[in-house]
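seq/struct pair 1
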Amino acid sequence: AVTLYVHPVVDSALWERVLRPGAADLVVVNVDSGPGHAPDPVFAEALHARDHSARDDNARHDNARDHSAPATLLGYVDTDYGRRDVHDVRAEARLWRDRYGVTSVFLDQVISGTGPDGRVDVDALLFFTDLANALRRDGVAMLAGNPGTVPHPRVLRLLDVTCVRETDLETHLTAPAPP
């Protein structure tokens, strides 16, 4: 998984490299801490070009393809550890779909499901269950989340992908996180 939080105008070469089929399985895209306050035509065009490039590349190969599929794009949405209103989170997920055709979501700052005392936070789990179910009903294809730690098993079951550590690849390979 790769975060692509730089605007395509700032580093178009990075966009091309990261969005090339086979470069990553998942790519989290972020206009401005989410889908942005208004549609960004440059951002939309970069994603549109990626879709056409992937289709053209697929058309060049037969059924025994020797290349990887394009990455799944996930639109960045912050939940502020359950402090953001469910309707606002759902609205941002819809904006990703409507503005940019991105149907999967990366929820940042997701609740872990346990309180500071280590006990289960039932209210937080109920909130997150409602949110995840609402996003699925809204048509979110893949739901990823970042609690920044190993969450309660209920949170793990609600997400397709869970991020428990953010680091660069070198650090990840040379200094693994404690179990």
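seq/struct pair 2
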Amino acid sequence: EFNLPTLNIVLVEPEIPQNTGNIARTCAATGSHLHIVEPMGFTIDDKKLKRAGLDYWHLLNITYYKKLDDFFSINQGPFYYFTTKAKNVYSDISYPDGCYLIFGKETAGLPEDLLKKHPESCVRLPMLNNDAARSLNLSNAVAIGVYEVLRQWNFPGLRLHGKLSN
């Protein structure tokens, strides 16, 4: 038996239940630890949240925090802040075991003062230089980040081959 590396996904003040449900499902399917910083734009018993997460909730390792300061007082990092304002591309980073991928709320992203304090830890997903397409959907951005880290780690503990039925 060996210990699998730990990947932490942090949602800061998520607003849309379907996104959080999709992210929860990604975390359940990959063994990632989900951290949610309140306030949220919905309740955990929201039908839309459950529908998006389907029957994966019992598989989740999830921790809630009342505010961002609480999260930082308990967790040590390293932290990587996903933002459209970053200079670094997410795939250029070498992610260590125990890292935290931090994502902001859908309408505003992460607080700019937080990003300014940690510019070298801010990463972005490349997109067209087009003001009309400001950012990717939150659940898609999380999935891209999660699978980049897992790819770098050679997908530890994940099934790499499927099987067709006869």
